[in-house]
Amino acid sequence: MLEFVTTLDQQIEGMHSLMVVRHSQVIAEGWWSPYDAEHNHLLYSLSKSFTSTAVGPRGRGEQVEH
């Protein structure tokens, strides 16, 4: 995980935060300075990605496990 975070830090400019979720539980989270958990982040295009990820399998008639 440390190698992954280091790679993110080196290759992506402007990282705000990272959250890892497994089996519906947050197992790791962290923020790059000056950001923190107390401040809201604008997620314009990311919201579309979440929606298409949720709707995509259903649009093909596939069952989505909860």
Overview of the molecule:
- Strand 1 and strand 2 (25-31) form a beta hairpin.
- The longest helix has 16 residues, at 44-59.
- The chain starts with a helix and ends in a 7-residue tail after the last helix.
- It has helices at 2-11, 44-59; strands at residues 17-22, 25-31.
- With 66 residues, the chain is α+β, with helices and mostly antiparallel strands.
Total helical segments: 2
SSE succession? HEEH
- Content-based structural category: alpha+beta
- Count of DSSP E strands? 2
Radius of gyration over all CA atoms, rounded: 15 Å
Q: Order of strands across the widest beta sheet?
A: 1-2
Distance between the termini: 26 Å
Percent range for β-strand residues: 15-25%
Low-confidence sequence ranges: none
Helix content range: 25-40%
Compute the average pLDDT: 80
Shape type: extended
Largest sheet geometry: 2 strands, antiparallel
Q: How are the secondary structure elements laid out?
A:
Blueprint: H1 2-11, E1 17-22, E2 25-31, H2 44-59
Antiparallel strand pairs: 1-2
At a glance:
This protein has 66 residues and is of the alpha+beta class.
Keywords:
66 residues; alpha+beta; two-stranded antiparallel ribbon; 39% helix; extended
